[in-house]
Amino acid sequence: MPELAAVVFDLDDTLFDHSGSATRGFGTWLSTFHGPPTPELTAAWFELQDRHFGAWRDGRISMTEQRRRRVGGMLELIGRPPLDEPGLDALWRDYFAAYRSGWQRFDDAETALELVAGAGLRTGILTNGPDDMQYDKIAVIGLTGRVGPVLTAEALGSAKPDPGAYAGLCAALGLDPAAILYVGDDYRLDVVGARAAGLRAVHLDRHGTGPAGERDRIASLHDLAAHLV
């Protein structure tokens, strides 16, 4: 096996606190036209996200359509009448503004980058998402120019766990897959998918919900050092 040459990170819920930002943003947004969020409605918002973003990731609907479906699904859950497309788009913009206002990176992201730099390894980001949003996140959380290359599903034309996404990553780095360590929070997309494409992988299991038998698992990016050898 070739020596490790690069560590590539997922973005959402790995370096960037998507779930925290989305939870806060959803609460602010919902309160403007319905009322304070309940745990059930917050969970439903994330279920809508996973369902419809997954459809976009699989190429079955557009990014705009998945956003409309998420907003429309929430309106249905709270008993609001359906809206036309401009109305759905306007509500999405309101949600996105609330979501974006709370963007922040995880406290351990800085430690991870320092560990990788100290080991003399290259970095990168491979993320399932549209170019504009993902680059905006990276800029807001202060990582522009510090981690690269940044590769998105939109730019590559394939999304994790499709092998094409990982092949595009390897081509961009000019490295053998086995020389790359991929770190991410989604076990199926970031660990199983990466390994199937020949990369090494570590599961960032912040909440302790991953497979119990996974040996290459860390609870925090502070624990990444042991995997950089």
UniProtKB/TrEMBL annotation:
<dbReference type="InterPro" id="IPR051540">
    <property type="entry name" value="S-2-haloacid_dehalogenase"/>
</dbReference>
<dbReference type="InterPro" id="IPR036412">
    <property type="entry name" value="HAD-like_sf"/>
</dbReference>
<dbReference type="GO" id="GO:0016787">
    <property type="term" value="F:hydrolase activity"/>
</dbReference>
<dbReference type="Pfam" id="PF00702">
    <property type="entry name" value="Hydrolase"/>
</dbReference>
<dbReference type="InterPro" id="IPR023214">
    <property type="entry name" value="HAD_sf"/>
</dbReference>
<dbReference type="InterPro" id="IPR006439">
    <property type="entry name" value="HAD-SF_hydro_IA"/>
</dbReference>
<protein>
    <submittedName>
        <fullName>Putative hydrolase of the HAD superfamily</fullName>
    </submittedName>
</protein>
<keyword id="KW-0378">Hydrolase</keyword>
